[in-house]
């Protein structure tokens, strides 16, 4: 026999001493630990002292029958493999016990030595297999618990990380927007009369975007595009920009280049990819007429933020002082919006702006209003 991980023990219970002795003799070379008991009570004590994997009992014994003994053992040692070694006369009882699941197998007296050995071997295998299944189940359960635990931790960590990233992302966007605002301010500063124009157009446009119930990300895009819409004026001569009188044709052609120049300035900035078309088309006319530039796009072909910005740009420009005139009164602004709704302006945008101005009056174009786009979007 090879070395055993744990020695297999079988307990035989019979009130006939000769049977116990012959069983012990028969199995002395099989590598099993063979123990015996002459009575049921002795068997139970024996099992308390030394566990066995297999118990084999006679049926007819004084004090307690084999079936009752096995029931008692089953209650105390549920894993133990229970068998009966019984004569033909007690067969009925034994078969019934098998059918009730009380015992694993039946061996008849007189027994066949080889069959008995084979049955014992199977019984031990059965026991070992049950133990192994139990152990594997336990391991699986523990692994599952550990996995669930890890998953919970992981979920928490991922959530935490995502939150941090979102915050960082938001910080970055705000920093970008500030940089953009500074850039736009530098453009406006070329001309004392247009100082603050870009910021105000951004504010008006984002308010109009909200009035039109556009999604958050579009409101943000409208604001940024509004801030940047005239950034291309950097490429226009100061003399043209600050000319304190009406522009001649040639100068007008030069000023008309600013949307294209602006788009080219912004194109290489990955973060501003969505903004570029909004800037390029902020002077297109809704009716597609050649008054609009640079491409004469019409209707929905013009990016929505551009249409929102054009209305806001007009409101800002009309209500501000110019070198050659004072800012126009609110009525003039309102009638201009109505007059050009459908030709220059998208009617939806013009109507939205009319509603806003009607509601807010002069407060809408008040100078130096504090405006936090993110508070505005989220609030
Ligand atoms: Fe412009
Ligand atoms: Fe403008």
Summary of the model, kept short:
The protein is an alpha/beta fold and 379 residues long.
Kindly state the percentage of residues in helix: 55-70%
The CATH superfamily of the largest domain is identified as Hypothetical protein af1432
The main β sheet shows up as:
5 strands, parallel
Bound small-molecule species: fe (ii) ion
Q: So, CATH architecture of the largest domain? A: Orthogonal Bundle
Query: What order do the helices and strands follow?
Result: EHEHEHEHEHHHHHHHHHHH
Structural class: alpha/beta
Radius of gyration: 47 Å
Calculate the mean pLDDT score and round it. Answer: 89
* Terminus-to-terminus distance: 82 Å
Q: How many domains make up the 3D coordinates?
A: 2
Which parts are unreliable, with pLDDT below 50 for 5 consecutive residues or more?
A: 1-5
Widest β-sheet, arrangement of strands: 2-1-3-4-5
Per DSSP, what share of the residues sits in E-state strands of 2 or more residues?
5-15%
The level-1 CATH class of the largest domain: Mainly Alpha
Number of helices: 15
Overall geometry: rod-shaped
Kindly identify the CATH topology of the largest domain. Hypothetical protein af1432
